[in-house]
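Materials and Methods. Structural model of FAD-dependent oxidoreductase. The 478-residue sequence of FAD-dependent oxidoreductase from Streptomyces botrytidirepellens was retrieved and submitted for structure prediction as follows.
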Amino acid sequence: MTCSTARSATRTCPVSADGAPHTLRREGRIVIVGASLAGLRAAETLREEGFSGSLTIIGDEPHEPYDRPPLSKQVLLGRSPADHTALPRRREVYARWRLGVAATGLDMTARRVRLAEGDEVGYDRLLITTGVRARPWPHPLEAELDGVFVLRTREDAAALHRRLSSAPRRVLVIGAGFTGSEIASACRERGLPVTVAERGPTPLVGALGGVLGEVAADLQRAHGVDLRCGVMVTGLEGDAAGRLRRAHLSDGTALDADVAVVSLGITRNTEWLAGSGLGAGPRGIACDAGCRAFDVRGIVTDDVFVAGDVARSPHPLFGYQFLSLEHWGNAVAQAEIAAHNMISASADRRPHLWVPAFWSSQFGVNIKSVGVPSLGEEVLIAQGSLAERRFTAVYGYQGRVIAAVTFDQSKWLAFYQRLIETAAPFPPPFATVDRRAEGLRPVPADFPDPTLPTHGPTVTLSGYSPSDRRIAFTPARI
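The predicted structure was written out as tokens:
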């Protein structure tokens, strides 16, 4: 295609800084690997912003994109079938769907994605939104026992719901991160006996620290959970028919259980990129603030983009530290930025500045967060009371506000988000409206040693340590 004509030498397409005509960026072939929340929202954004070329979406699951948060809540409680979790469409994407087939390789030179069925799909620009998967029980023969589950997919949720509906004698949840805690909550709401085994000192310690972890521990025990912290499950034992019957713990005790749910965190889906030359590994796919992927030499690409849980991107609010975020809101915001930048000239591209935020509902309490709590050195109870399990906790790092977490007090989040965005000092210099004696001074946040593995973090930090840089942002969505 040419943009000039014989009649007028001035009828040329505007040219971007990288030499590509602007109109051409809205044509050609775009491939999205990952039929996920991020993949769908990126596809919608591409069409909304005028992309008229061919669009192919590849996914290893047989379903079009669906919502995962309800799987550990409404689906396990029987309030919604697993196959009723499809994501609502904002608009038609006019895509070719390649579902139920995994991507197995990437040739960046030829610009082709290899598929498990032997086919290859060519692209002009590629977006990777492959997300994460549940980490399985590490002993394969034990993992195959009837009664051992993980929870990540629709099929996982449907199978676990069926088993919980059969009134098991006891459910063992291995790992007390957010997913494990939500599963335990659903089991107790169904009236099932539940034991939670957590190798850390408290539930949620990797994500919220020990101070709030103690609150989570009290919450679980108050709702009848047999919570055992500081222990590991060393083995799962089955009967002659291959059915789970017993779990062995590191403290030498044994526990009879006929259902075990393994909630040991996630693995990012990057193995298919081995040998591709892309900067991908266990922590995700490294990209710049505009969602362009880096190659293994640290050089940014201009035709490969990444978004969602699998991305590892620098955040200017946190000193350009690379963050891997397992957040619903981040997947949407980053996908929209990636899609916009894929079809925009260099001068029109935007950085991904979404402030991390997440929420969880467990044992009748709504937990919400903004910022990166796991970066905090100290925590201050700014409103409410730990004893009442209704409070706002503010985290500080190197003298600035870095995060806030609320238990049933989310009205304060927007206020503290603004403090985070403007690098406000920590502890906040003002008196809060209802600060109790326990919140008069900051205390150590009590996060575990970062060199030791913990269950259920929502943010993975890597790269350089953040500085005290002051940056102002426009308010983001919570």
